[in-house]
Amino acid sequence: MAVRSTASGQVPGFSYHAAVVCEDLSSRLSARSTGVLGSSGADRSSLMLAPPDFDADVLELLSECVATGLLEYPCDRVQFLVYPDGVGFAAHHDSAHRWGPRILSLSLGATCELQLSKKGEETFRCALEDRSVYVLKGAARYDWKHAISRRKRGGARLSVVIRTTRLYSRAARFLGCGREDWTDLEEALAASDDGGRKLTKAQAKEGEAVAVELFVSLTAACAWNFSGAQTQTKKPKRQCTDC
Known about the structure:
Number of domains: 2
Largest sheet: 7 strands, antiparallel
Distance between the termini: 9 Å
Shape: globular
């Protein structure tokens, strides 16, 4: 895995990582978009997966991201977004109330341009190559907007976006994980629902119990161990020889 050093420093909390997944896993993840990738429609297609629907390929992807340090722990939401050639998205922040402190996006297919913008700052641009990953956390997550250029790029692109829901990220923190990303802001956000409404103690307790159970089962499925303040990762078994 290679990291572009030019990315860090220009936008705090942003990092770019080239060739994160092997070609075999890339092909298997892309295969679920067969047919959609070849469409000429103007709009993107989307598929959101939660843990009950995580198959072996998704679990392998999460395991790889944890093993290489891109994620602190396996996440509970994976979204597949297919962009036909010339389709991108406008500058925005991912919902702070719905999603946790770290956003990770795997890019498969044609190279495109990521743009990070903030009022009073020069727009930061980064080419997202096939099998690369970018990470948003901290200032890059909350202070900078991200967008994908709509210019033609010679082919379709699949984006695999990995996120945590708020209660799940709080459950991870409760179990001693995710300390790197946790701040007072995260604590306040974790106490609210998707609409920003403050949870009652009963709602928070019930939601957190469910999230803890999910966290334990998902980390087990990814063959990842955790123990209080200290975490250990296991490298997933390679299924190909090109990485």
